[in-house]
# Entry
Amino acid sequence: MCLAIPGRIKSVDKKTNVALVDFDGIEREVNVSLVDVKKGDYAIVHAGFAIQKLTSKDAKEISDLLEGK
Amino acid sequence: MTLNIIKKIEILAKEINRDVVIMELCGTHTEAVAKNGIKKILPKNVKLLSGPGCPVCVTDQKDVDAIIKLALNDVPIACYGDVLRVPGNLVLKADKQKQKLSLNKARELGADVNEVYSTEDALKLQKEKKDLVFFGLGFETTTPMTADAIKKGLTVYSSHKLFIPAMQVLVDTPTLKIDGFLNPGHVSAIIGTELYQKFKLSQVITGFSGEDVLLGIYMLLKQIAERREEVENEYTRCVRPEGNPVARKLVDEVFENGDAFWRGLGNIPNSGLKIREKYSKYDAKVKYKNILSCHSELVEESLESTGCICGAILRGLKQPKDCKLFNKKCTSENPIGACMVSSEGACGIEAKYL
# Structure
């Protein structure tokens, strides 16, 4: 139930607080009203909401993992 | 890296030289432990126990019954998929076998029960079904989403719970000897690290990959070996000391603390979240008070014991294999207790992976 996964923010609609988030190739709309994120950031997403922004160091690790580095 | 951690765990376990009991509090941890075969690779004197952190498992029968009652009275229901098969205490009066009803069974009887992935989906559904009631359940991770939806006009039946009071019950159970807790990662992403300080016990906030869990266990063993009782954070990539204050403010605006019944643990003071009076228009317990309190022609409550020991399992006092129903009368296909229903329940996981 408390499962949450990291995704990369592709774009943010500031008016609605809805972002388009890329989860390893699958894109979904995510509510980002609980976090301060911009394009390119990574966030942990639970039940349609981003609950925490990942630090840039961790984002790089995840990004490297996804690119197979 | 993983092999290295396993080696370090073995060295520490030898050094401690006695049985060590660690409880993984979160159901998502229990699943990660089983999926990665972690129990099998741990040294013999390091024992892992599952805790009460499966929200579906601890949802009280009375809450399930209330939602079923609404559903059988033509109120459309939206809920997360995990709770669909959880039995309450209601049975059909006409059913001689007295089989306890779940939301799935209510759906078979013609009720309008809709599975949703998020509250945003529930809000979309509400446009077609204006009387829709969302079954709000879960811990601090999931509550902000419900609060947001209530502010947007979604009617909710709240069974939301707080994690810290449940930990207090475990700490106060004299028969339960625990050396350390693996604290829940995503609950902590919201509440932060400070609230755990009141427990004088070794604790590590832990993430959900196999490596995270192993590292969490290693950090706990290190604390135990050095006789430290601290709150450490393994899951730093997601959990900040202050948690998520924006989410907490939102929850506080919509909800207030109240007593709550937990399946297996009973009534825990101030462990539940009820909708504030300001938002009572969207509180299903207020809006549908008549249906919830009225006598039903169709169903009745059956308090006949099934023999299920979910309660003791949720408190770490018994293991799934101690239950005489486990994998016999109670199976994944035909679950009797909530712990067998949920993908995060100790019994369901034991049946699936072991």
